[in-house]
Specification:
With 233 residues, this protein is of the alpha/beta class. 35% of the residues lie in helices and 18% in strands. The chain is built from eight helices and seven strands. The chain has a seven-stranded mixed sheet with strand order 3-2-1-4-5-6-7, with helices on both faces. Helix 4 links the parallel strand 4 and strand 5. The chain binds 5-O-phosphono-beta-D-ribofuranosylamine.
């Protein structure tokens, strides 16, 4: 199976870039190809990244951009059969969410359902994480339904929160994991290995989701000796 992927982005597009580069590394083994990139912001860096690779890039029609193109028309024009939200800050119209059920993905920079929902995006997420005092945050990739950040979770990966963190340092650490996790999940769904029906099961083909910092046997003793570090207080 090879999917025709439309990417929607509102910002700089580093997740788009990570997906494009991961697909390059897979060559013929990749599960799909990015056929179009669209943004609700004419100045979005994601559009520049697409243009640099000769991938069709479009501005979506909105009150702010009446000259833009309707999303439904773009999806039809490029025969997209999968949608990837890569830092897209608008709700996808419900009729399109329904039409692409199980074929529309999002990445969120926290471990949903915590720190998610309307208004929780960008550094607001990381500020809330730090304010809460949790010691572990992470990245979530999920199917999109008609509510912000509520669709079925496909994969998560933990990221430690350090006492010295501010929103910027934490965002950078989380983004690095996004760039590793998202492309691999996008590819698994694009190739049909992971579906709404089997996601979260061993059959889904998502790589081993042991935590990035699983303590290996020889490290467990270090935890015992440094329990004050784990306590972080
Ligand atoms: C990422 O932090 C992602 O988690 C969130 O929006 C940001 C997009 O960054 N959904 P970029 O535009 O991909 O660099």
């Amino acid at each position: 199976m090879s999917s025709r992927i439309a990417v929607l982005a509102s910002g700089g597009g580093s997740n788009l870039q990570a997906i494009l580069e991961y697909f390059d590394s897979l060559g013929e083994r990749r599960g799909g190809q990015v056929v179009m990139v669209a943004s609700n912001r004419a100045g979005a860096g994601a559009l520049d990244r697409a243009a640099r690779r000769d991938i069709p890039a479009a501005v979506l029609r909105s009150d702010k951009h009446p000259e833009g193109e309707p999303l439904a028309d773009l999806l039809e024009t490029y025969k997209a059969d999968m949608i990837v939200l890569a830092g897209y800050l608008r709700l996808v119209p419900p009729d399109i969410v329904r039409r692409f059920e199980g074929r529309i993905l999002n990445v969120h920079p926290a471990l949903l359902p915590a720190f998610g929902g309307p208004g929780m995006y960008g550094n607001r997420v990381h500020h809330a994480v730090i304010e809460s005092g949790v010691k572990v945050t992470g990245v979530t990739v999920h199917f999109v339904d008609d509510q912000y950040d509520r669709g079925r979770i496909i994969a998560q990966w933990p990221v430690p929160v350090f006492a010295s963190d501010d929103a910027g340092t934490l965002a950078a650490r989380v983004l690095r994991i996004e760039h590793l996790l998202y492309p691999r999940v996008v590819d698994a769904v694009a190739a049909g290995r992971t579906t709404l029906a089997n996601c979260g099961s061993a059959a889904s083909g998502i790589m081993d989701t042991r935590p990035a910092f699983t303590l290996l046997p020889h490290e467990e003793s270090r935890l015992a000796e440094n329990i004050d570090l784990a306590l972080g207080c």
